[in-house]
Amino acid sequence: MNARTVIAGDPSSPVILHVPHASRTIPAAIRSSLTVTDDQLAAELDEITDAHTDIIAQHAARSAGVPPWTLRNDLSRLVIDPERFPDDREELNTVGRGAVYTRTCNGEVLRSDDTGTRTALLDTYFHPYAAAMSDLVADRIAVTGRAVIIDVHSYPTLPSGYELHTDGPRPALCVGTDPHHTPQWLIEAAHAAFSSLADAGINTPFGGTYVPLDHYVTDRRVYSVMIELRRDQYLTENGELVDIAAENLGAMLGRLVDAADRGNR
Fold first, then answer.
1. pLDDT tens digits in sequence order for the chain, 265 residues long
2. Distance CA 104, CA 204 (A)
């Protein structure tokens, strides 16, 4: 079973579409270690999977003038969450939603909270995934002189039970930024690319964006921005994909890819 897929883009492109939370796949051995029922698991996956963001990214890659590279997580974030800090820096550890989830969205026990389980999952899945992303970033820097990560996510209209910051707005588009790796031109490009959406916000309801830890802070050749799309922009109330909406959002994301390819040259 593949844990991740790298889709090659144009050799000249510095842009990497990162799709970490689109999958619902859980290996059988890991499913057997989860303490929830099948119905509870299905409900959890419905809530926390960034459904069809991989399809939106595919549309973006096809529509971009210069095809970007893509790294896609092929396993559910219930296996490991590649975007969390794997240590005490992660604030969501307090609700059992760090790199290895031990609690569901509503606080029920998901898996045993023991060091051995956590270490095994980190060693088997988290660290190899992080290394693959780091290698791809290093490759893009070696070839093009920089890497631009566009982190592709979605989020529900109403807050999930695990969210720590629920007071802010939940716009159609949330642009997540990092103080070291998200320059103003990239923020402006994101807003321009998705300007036809009803509203947009910065770091609300979710903040930050993904940068491999071995490039974090110190490597200013790495740029990153997070795109969080509110799910009612492309899903029905029953969670079904609206094809034309996904295609349109993919075209908007493709415009951001093109702007990121041109930016800061």
1. 789 999 999 999 999 999 999 999 999 999 999 999 999 999 999 999 999 999 999 999 999 999 999 999 999 999 999 999 999 999 999 999 999 999 999 999 999 999 999 999 999 999 999 999 999 999 999 999 999 999 999 999 999 999 988 989 999 999 999 999 999 999 999 999 999 999 999 999 999 999 999 999 889 999 999 999 999 999 999 999 999 999 999 999 999 999 999 986 5
2. 22
DSSP 3-54: SEEEE---TT--EEEEE-S------HHHHTT--S-HHHHHHHHHHHS-TTHH
Contact 34, 110 (CB under 8 A): yes
Terminal Cα distance for the chain, rounded = 39
Question: What's the whole-model pTM score?
Answer: 0.96
- Report the length, in residues, of the chain: 265
| CA 222 – CA 141 distance, rounded (Å) | 8
- 129 in helix, strand or coil? helix
